[in-house]
Write a structure and sequence with these properties.
The complex is a heterotrimer.
Chain A: H1 5-24, H2 27-37, E1 44-59, E2 66-80, E3 86-92, H3 96-110, H4 112-142
Antiparallel strand pairs in A: 1-2, 2-3
Helix pairs in contact in A: 1-3, 1-4, 2-3, 2-4, 3-4
Chain B: H1 9-24, H2 34-40, H3 42-52, E1 54-55, H4 57-66, H5 71-82, E2 87-90, E3 100-105, H6 155-160, H7 191-199, H8 203-214, E4 222-236, E5 245-261, E6 270-279, H9 283-295, H10 312-318, H11 321-329, H12 336-368
Antiparallel strand pairs in B: 3-4, 4-5, 5-6
Helix pairs in contact in B: 2-4, 3-4, 3-5, 4-5, 7-9, 8-9
Chain C: H1 4-7, H2 14-30, H3 50-59, E1 66-68, H4 70-73, H5 76-86, E2 99-102, E3 127-131, E4 141-144, E5 152-154, H6 163-172, E6 179-184, E7 187-191, E8 196-199
Parallel strand pairs in C: 1-2, 2-3, 3-6
Antiparallel strand pairs in C: 4-5, 4-8, 6-7
Classes of the chains: A alpha+beta, B alpha+beta, C alpha/beta.
Chain lengths: 156, 369, 202
């Protein structure tokens, strides 16, 4: 069955979103979830895990021309499962085991048979934790919002 | 003549051992852990990341421990480390309008969309030392309040509607983004290169220069249009994937400094802007950077260079504290041969000087007799 | 979906293989004309050869824009293999290239089209990696210059058109000019810009 272009785009977007959850995951949470899900640990490493740099770009004035403003450590890995799927991972930081596990999760995700299991056991719990942490931070920040009172002076 | 001198190996080795001992300090005091530094000296970590130009909290914290808290030494360590890593690419430019905001204030608009969010700030504290912290000092859980989900537009977008503020800084279409870590500086510099140098520049140096513009050395009438701190997503284009791969989030501080500008032959009266963008929570640095950025645009605005902060060769050549410390501190390394030559020269000049003095004195005596 | 052949075939031991190939390139540059066998072999997709692939893996990275000749340019497999394993960006024009990979040297555009470096920074020139059939079965070339005691011999084939004449012009631009790495099944040989070439007939 050949996917049409739109379906392909949807799958790409879903895969990207799963990779985003993996990249943002705290390493220990990811390791625990992978353990619990019983992910295959015997994937063949095709590249890495290796740590390198990305140069981080901003935009002048926030929205203008790009400029480089520093670098960040990134660790990446590429694995192949015995069933043939190739998975990639990239994430900030230097955790090689996280990179390896993320690449395995990405490879499994591409197998349509395993996808929902990976989504359910790994990606979704990571997303929920991330959403909760973000919501808590937003609420803490919102509590420091200034409410101005207009003072009425003089006579009406 | 150059005389090679050998020796001192044992002294150096023992000095390093002594340094390791003094770094550790009293063994009855527990050793610092990296996570303690990351969590509790977070702004020092941020400064090392910003000026070391490497976003990695644990590495910055390690550098702080290893350098005994000497932040410039820590920055040096981080800079040295980053040269050992391969580079995977340039990220897509971050979108600060999509930031998960942790602090955001504006001095120009009271009621801006999204509001004034003070966040974890030292502002409005009384700067009284808190003796309870000496004993650990537990902190209360932060308060929470329902957060509206409105997008937090940058303040520049608000003024832009009236056409009274210059647009975000554009460069010519064919401009290739420069990178000071790859190509040597060639003056004059494009604004993107200056911003890269300022972003990793020494906070104290930029602070002093920013201050000098406020005191009249290249005045620019600044207001903080907005300072925002928070986390932004990083994405990287890689050849093996058909989409930009998400890398996670980093915390940055952004400052939009708005400057009243009376216009020039080239530009009508309007507000102009200086821009600051720095790793971590580094508000002072981002503000100082934006003041310097604006000052360095003086010529572009049709003005004359009259002050240090406006002189890009002066500012950019001296903003890097690793370069500065290297050149200043090298003066303590052996210069025995140089100095020997100087000594000979001064002795000879002194002898000639004395000879002239004596001859002069003899003449005066003769004339008096 | 990434094809397997674009992902396989890198160095088995990335650090040691790259070091040994780098050593071979350094020796070949220091002693122009000598043939240095390549130990750390790569298995790139055709039309990229294993030796040229190993040289590319060793020298190219994200900071070195890479130019491909039309034959390589037309091979999606070779392009994505190079992209994945080296991370090199593609040079928009030959004059932007730090390295150029050439699978059909006989059809190569003139050397003067590549980056020649500047008088202040002569190192900012293109290094060409030419993929050859052989280093010993072409017509003999006599080599002279730094790194060669009296005279060295090489017989690479196939070479770019009018190569000896082009090389003379390249010498004439010194200190600017390109350097060449010849990659053939026997190993590699180098022609740094300081080397003078004479044909046997001359």
């Amino acid at each position: 069955m050949k996917m049409d272009r739109r379906q392909e785009k949807d799958v790409e977007a879903a895969r990207r979103s799963a990779m985003a959850a993996l990249a943002a995951a705290p390493a220990d949470a990811l390791k625990r979830l992978c353990d619990e899900a019983g992910l295959p640990g015997d994937a063949q490493l095709l590249r890495g895990p290796e740590t390198g740099l990305v140069t981080v770009r901003g935009r002048i004035g926030g929205g203008g021309a790009p400029f480089n403003f520093g670098e960040a450590t990134v660790t990446r890995a590429t694995v192949r499962l015995t069933t043939g799927e190739v998975g990639h991972s990239y994430a900030l930081g230097r955790d090689r085991e996280k990179a390896r596990l993320s690449a395995i999760a990405d490879a499994l995700w591409q197998d349509p048979v395993r996808r929902s299991e990976i989504e359910e056991k790994i990606i979704e719990p990571l997303r929920v934790a991330q959403r909760e942490a973000d919501a808590r931070k937003r609420a803490e920040t919102a509590a420091t919002r200034v409410d101005f009172f207009t003072l009425v002076r003089g006579e009406d | 003549m150059y005389v090679a001198v050998k020796g001192g190996e044992a002294a150096i080795e023992n000095a390093h051992r002594l340094l390791a001992d003094r770094r550790r300090g009293d063994r009855s005091v527990p050793a610092l852990r990296i996570d303690q530094i990351v969590e509790q000296l977070a702004l020092g970590v941020d400064r090392v990341m910003a000026e070391g130009s490497l976003y990695d909290r644990e590495l910055a914290a390690l550098a702080i421990v290893q350098s005994r808290g000497d932040l410039i030494e820590a920055i040096f360590l981080v800079r040295a480390y980053r040269t050992t890593l391969p580079r995977f690419g340039y990220t897509k430019p971050i979108d600060t309008a999509a930031m998960q905001v942790e602090r955001r204030v504006s001095a120009t608009y009271k009621d801006l969309p999204g509001g004034q969010l003070l966040g974890p700030t030292f502002d409005y504290t009384h700067r009284l030392l808190d003796p309870e912290l000496a004993n650990g000092g537990d902190a209360d859980e932060p308060a929470q309040r329902e957060a509206p989900s409105e997008r937090m537009a940058r303040v520049s977008e608000i003024l832009a509607h009236e056409g009274l503020i210059e647009a975000d800084g554009e460069l010519p279409d064919d401009h290739v983004t420069g990178d000071i870590t790859r190509e040597p500086l060639e003056f004059p510099l494009a604004r993107d290169i200056r911003l890269q140098a300022l972003s990793r520049g020494d906070e104290g140096f930029l602070l002093a220069l920013g201050y000098s513009t406020q005191r009249g050395y290249g005045r620019s009438h600044p207001f903080v249009g907005e300072v925002r701190i928070g986390e932004v997503e990083l994405e990287l284009d890689v050849p093996e994937l058909p989409f930009a791969v998400p890398l996670g989030r980093i915390r940055v501080t952004e400052c939009q400094m708005v400057n009243q500008f009376k216009g020039s032959a080239k530009v009508p009266p309007q507000f102009t802007r200086g821009y600051g963008l720095v790793f971590g929570q580094s508000e002072r640095k981002a503000m100082a950077m934006s003041l310097c950025d604006r000052a360095l645009r003086t010529r572009e605005m049709g003005g004359d260079i009259t002050a240090a902060a406006q002189d890009e060769e002066f500012v950019i050549s001296h903003a890097d504290n690793v370069q500065a410390t290297g050149f200043v501190e090298h003066l303590k390394l052996p210069h025995y041969v140089d100095f020997q030559a100087e000594l000979d020269l001064v002795r000879r000049m002194r002898a000639e000087h004395d000879a002239r003095e004596n001859a002069g004195a003899a003449e005066t005596r003769e004339a008096a007799e | 979906m990434v094809e397997a052949e674009t992902i396989d075939g890198s160095f088995a031991n990335p650090v040691f293989d790259a070091q040994s190939v780098f050593r071979a390139i350094m020796d070949a540059m220091a002693r122009p004309g000598t043939i240095q066998p390549i130990d750390g072999l790569a298995r790139p997709p055709a039309p990229l050869s294993p030796v040229a692939g190993a040289v590319a893996l060793t020298l190219c990275d994200h900071d070195t824009p890479l130019w491909l000749d039309p034959a390589l340019q037309a091979s999606p497999a070779a392009k994505s293999w190079l992209g994945f394993h080296t991370g090199s960006p593609w040079a928009g024009t030959p004059a932007d290239a730090h390295f150029a990979l050439v699978s059909k040297p006989a059809e190569l555009i003139a050397l003067e089209n590549f980056a020649q470096g500047t008088q202040e920074y002569p190192d900012r020139s293109t290094t060409l990696i030419l993929q050859l059939d052989s280093l010993v079965s072409g017509s003999d070339l006599l080599l002279e210059g730094p790194g060669i005691e009296k005279m060295a011999m090489a017989a690479p084939t196939p070479l770019p058109r009018h190569f000896v004449e082009q090389w003379k012009q390249n010498r004439g631009r010194f200190p600017r000019g390109v350097d060449v790495i010849l990659a053939a099944p026997e190993g590699i040989a180098c022609l740094p810009r300081t080397t003078r070439i004479k044909t046997m007939e001359a």
